[in-house]
Amino acid sequence: MGGVFAQRDDASTPLALEDLAGLIPAHIAYGRELNEAERDNIARGQDWAMARRRDLLSEKYIRDLHSQMLGDVWRWAGKFRTSERNIGIAYWPIPVELRTLLDDTRTWVACESYGPDEIAVRFHHRLVQIHPFPNGNGRHSRLMADLLAMRLGRERFSWGWESLLEAGGVRGRYIAALQAADKHDIGPLVAFARA
Questions:
Q1: Helix, strand, coil shares of the chain as percentages rounded to 5?
Q2: 3-state class of 134 per DSSP?
Q3: Domain residue extents for the chain
Q4: Which is more confident, 4 or 146?
Q5: Cα–Cα distance between 109 and 112 in angstroms, integer?
Q6: pLDDT at site 173
Q7: For residues 15 and 77, is the Cβ–Cβ distance under 8 A?
Q8: pTM of this structure
Q9: Where are the alpha helices (DSSP H) in 132-168?
Q10: 2-193 has which fold?
């Protein structure tokens, strides 16, 4: 089954061998089947999130949402990664960095440090930088930002209106906006989120 995952698109975060062992559906034989299973599970996770009003800015909610989004596909869904990746911080300070992000975001909201869109996009950007889970971080952090924006009285973001899983135009603009935010220019990412 190892060759199956080499067929995944280049935009996906490479999975470690221990993560591949966590695949739940036994019928999956091709990368496209894995993408379909994840897409279907993520849709159910979105439905779960939209039907509940909970404290978004809690570690428990962040883990629960990831589990709802990918828990039918991966055994490790909702669990922080335990190995290094080519993106994100080292794995061992994830809980501390996440608590800092949650505290910062609560402060931004309470003090109205930024407008609602910018608060949600800053939250998204930092969550992507932390990269807490083995995979699904971009999809998870975008949904978290959507939920936060809606909680702050705004509509969901468009995120370019197309799939960000495919390499190319829209994904390229998204990556460029993330890289600008890495350099403390959040404007392009806020603009992309509403594009």
A1: 60, 0, 40
A2: coil
A3: 2-193
A4: 146
A5: 5
A6: 92
A7: no
A8: 0.89
A9: 137-151
A10: Fic-like fold (1.10.3290)
- Using only C-alpha atoms, what is the Rg of the chain? 16
In the 8-state DSSP scheme, what is residue 15? P
Contact between 119 and 105 (Cβ < 8 Å)? yes
Please give the helix or strand (H or E) that residue 135 lies within, else none. Answer: none
Average pLDDT, the chain: 89
End-to-end CA distance of the chain: 39
CB of 33 closer than 8 Å to CB of 23: no
CB 192 within 8 A of CB 173: yes
Which pair of tokens denotes residue 136? Answer: 């699904």
* Cross-strand partners of 23: 74
DSSP string over 26-53:
TT--SHHHHHHHHHHHHHHHHHHHHT--
Question: What tens digit of pLDDT does each residue of 58-88 get?
Answer: 999 999 999 999 999 999 999 999 999 999 9
Structure tokens at 188: 């392009």
